[in-house]
């Protein structure tokens, strides 16, 4: 069953965050993740949205998503994201 990772980010250091972006796609691809959307200005139709970036990723399973997230490569790269932004990440299950 596919799962989707939704990331809400508030970027406070664009230069530092760009270090994260440089290696992101290579690692995501290695772990068979798919980048479905990146949006800096989503249309808010209800409530508030205080984040500067929203990202939607797809993985084949929860196991695959966690394998990517927990990998040594992503954790090393993720240090740039942690230093340059704050974020919320959630996994949601897709429909079969």
Please describe the structure with a list of short key phrases separated by commas or semicolons.
single chain; 96 residues; alpha+beta; four-stranded antiparallel sheet; 3 helices; 4 strands; 41% helix
Task: Note down, in words, how this protein is organized.
By secondary structure, the protein is of the alpha+beta class. Helices cover about 40% and strands about 30% of the residues. It contains three helices and four strands; from the N terminus they run βαββααβ. A four-stranded antiparallel β-sheet has the order 2-3-1-4. Helix 1 (about 15-30) runs antiparallel to helix 3. It is flat and about 30 Å long. The mean pLDDT is about 95.
User: Any idea what the shape is?
Assistant: flat
Helix/strand class? alpha+beta
How much β-strand is present in the residues?
25-35%
Helical content band:
40-55%
Unreliable segments of 5+ consecutive residues: none
How can the largest sheet be summarized? Answer: 4 strands, antiparallel
Give average pLDDT, whole number.
96
**Lateral arrangement of strands in the main beta sheet:** 2-3-1-4
Task: Give the number of DSSP strands.
Answer: 4
- Oligomeric category: single chain
Q: Measured on Cα atoms, how large is the radius of gyration?
A: 13 Å
Query: How far apart are the termini?
Result: 6 Å
Instruction: Please tally the helical runs, counting DSSP H or I stretches of 4 or more residues.
Output: 3
Produce a short descriptive summary.
By secondary structure, this protein is an alpha+beta fold. Helices cover 41% and strands 32% of the residues.
